[in-house]
Amino acid sequence: MSIHGWLVYKTKNMKDKIISVNLETSTAPVVAEARGRDWIEYGDANGDWRNLYPQFLIDLYYSSSISAAIINATSEMISGKDIIIEDEDERDLEARVKLQHFLDSANSNETLHEVLVKASFDFKLQGGFALNIVYSQDRTQIAEVYHLDVSKLRCSKPDEFGKTTGYYISSDWTNTRQNKPYYVPAFNPNDRTSANQILYAGLYSPNMNSYYIPDYISCNNWSLLDGKISEFHLQNVSNGFSGSYMISFANGIPTAEERNEIERSLASKFTGENNAGKFILTFSDDKTRVPEITPISPSDLDKQFLALQELLVSNITSGHRITSKTLMGLDSGNGFSSNADELNSASNFYHNTVIVNFQNRILKVLSKIFKVNDMDMPVQFVQLKPITTKFTNQDLAAVLTPDEIREEMGYEPLDVDVEVREDFSKVGMVDGKPVFSTIEEAEAHSKTLGCVGYHEHDLDGTTGYMACEGHEEATELSKFIEEFGEDMPKDWELVSEEEAEEELEGFDFETELNSDYYEFASTGSAYPNRKSGQDQKSKQTDYKDDIYRVRYRYVGSLTGERDFCRKMTNANKIYRKEDIIAMGTKAVNPGWGKGGANTYSIWKWKGGALCEHKWNRIILVQEGNKPKNSDEIISATQAKSRGIKLPRNAKEVSVAPHDMPNHGFVNPELIAKYKNV
After folding, report:
1. Which residues pair with 154 in a beta bridge?
2. pLDDT tens readout for residues 244-255
3. Which of 366, 397, 468, 518 is deepest in the core (most CB within 10 A)?
4. How far is residue 167's CA from residue 190's CA, in Å, rounded to a whole number?
5. Cβ-count burial of 259 within 10 angstroms (0-12 exposed, 13-18 middle, 19+ buried)?
6. Rounded to an integer, what distance in angstroms lies between the CA atom of residue 231 and that of residue 228?
7. Which of 644, 641, 620 is nearest to 505 (CA)?
């Protein structure tokens, strides 16, 4: 409700006639479903918001800063930081690879998580979300998934069983003549006649048959009031007259035209920020005909608005099921630092009672999609934390114990009774390993390395103690580097060096790369009896049959805190993949495996939790023998290394359909149709 100003004319018989009372009273529209021509209308059936309830929610979002803050924060919590495969190591390899590719590329422009970020916003704002499902040309797979703005969607009339079989889409439902709605069938894997289908989902909404309504609908009037109060304050700043006075003229009732002219004249002369503080000067030869100006400003107006503001904040947050305003980025008045415990408790409560319900619904929808592509396996959201400060490894080591770091990473404690402070207690270094002044500290350090006991070292006449019962046990990594590390070979050219993060652990890149070379060769000739590069032993190999070699280098900071990372990078050696895989069976970095294990996949986890290093794939070719189509061959092999099955002898194998002519469509006329959905 907002009051702009009252203008009153007094008649001779003391009856007042009000020509303008700008008193606005707004309430949220009644949510209703009504049968339209071809679709179910969604909104106030008899009001201004007929079939436009989604647009009302959007307008409300833009007008209420409090509601907008809650919707923004909640939608970010729903989508999380990412979406990943749950228990990835325990899943079927082929299905896992297929699903991972789908997560990385839901459509030609977006990852699945990027799609879900938009869907999560719609889910909170509108109460439901919609996805555009695009099948492959042969209808055997779901090729792409796009976000569809749910405000553009209206449900078709239900069939005889009460089921919605399709949806109508319009870019602007306020003008359906110029933006004619078009029909798209509902998601139905059993009927793939149409290449496009729409999957519309949400949480249960009482008394609704077709649409899903937002969970905060009960506080919409308070959100409206929030917007109206901001408008009122804006008018008070912009309007020096501010509706604080009632002006009564005692010279009779003017005509309607005269009254309107007086109103316009007063408004133009005495309103606006530049006219604030001005006074009114009148002239009259009769005291009885002088205009009467009466102040109508209520007392303690500032206190009344303050109380009203607190009341509407309380009601809006309650309507959204918020227990802590700080959680939503709203000022609690007590300062951030003093509310850390409250923030974490509120975050856990809100996540368990609100966010999880949204996320579970999204995950169930995704399961339906994954099932169509034979890659139905659990995925999970990577959750946001209430406080997200990025610490370096040095920061963590300075303020946390090893067990505290391991607890944060989800590992079991090491059960080390003696605190090891290498910077204080070590007396020297041997082969990159610390030597301590006491046996207790050496034994304690043994537990962090995954070995037991200690052994002695003489350091310039002083006896020191090193972890593990024998020195050889402590230098397992050095032995590996010495035995399997290679320098860059002579007479070979470097073709490329790039990250190998997407390469499957069991993929033999070198063998496949050389095989692809012969598949792409114009002669079509091959060497069926040639040995696989990966099957041959390093340093003694005769590579006369192979065009390419593939090696891997451990790259990253040369000053890593961990002995493993520091030694690997400083050695600057290259390795065969099969040797790296075998490396995972040796205690080269003990204590950093799952549950504190001494061995783990070095290919996948590198130096362990918080490690910032990675494997680079190095491709070499015989000097002077680089084929003309080398880039195409390598691209095809890279695709297969991620689990993508490609046809042989096809030049298109290394080109994404999106980058092909007509974006891979056989019928160019279909492009426009698919882009519009």
Report:
1. 168
2. 556 666 666 677
3. 468
4. 18
5. middle
6. 5
7. 641
User: Tokens 């040639």 label which residue?
Assistant: 530
Q: Which long-range contacts (CB under 8 A, 24 or more apart) does 390-394 make?
A: 393/561, 393/610, 393/612, 394/561
Answer whether 430's CB lies under 8 Å from 455's CB: no
Q: How far apart are CA 75 and CA 60, in angstroms?
A: 16
Specify the residue for token string 């990852």: 111
Instruction: Give the torsion through C-alpha atoms of 590, 592, 596, 597, to 10 deg.
Output: -50
CA separation, residue 467 to residues 402, 464, 472 (Å): 17, 10, 11
Q: Which two tokens stand for residue 579?
A: 């040797």
Residues 392-418, buried b or exposed e (16+ Cβ, 10 A)?
Answer: ebeebeeeeebeebbeeeebeebebee
Angle at 218 between CA 217 and CA 220, to 5 degrees: 65
Q: Which of 484, 489, 486 is nearest to 621 (CA)?
A: 489
> What tens digit of pLDDT does each residue of 354-395 get?
999 999 999 999 999 999 999 888 899 988 765 444 455 555
Confidence at residue 468, expressed as pLDDT on a 0 to 100 scale = 78
Domain boundaries, the chain: 2-26+222-302, 33-216, 393-474, 478-646, 652-677
Name the token pair of 271. 């309103």
Read off the amino acid at residue 225. Answer: L
- Give pTM, 2 decimals: 0.52
Closest CA to 592 of 613, 576, 575: 613
Alpha-carbon distance 386 to 346, whole Å? 9
- Which regions of 157-225 does DSSP assign to beta strands (E)? 166-169, 182-185, 196-202
User: Which residues, other chains included, contact 158 with Cβ-Cβ below 8 Å and sequence gap of 6+?
Assistant: 40, 164, 165, 209, 210
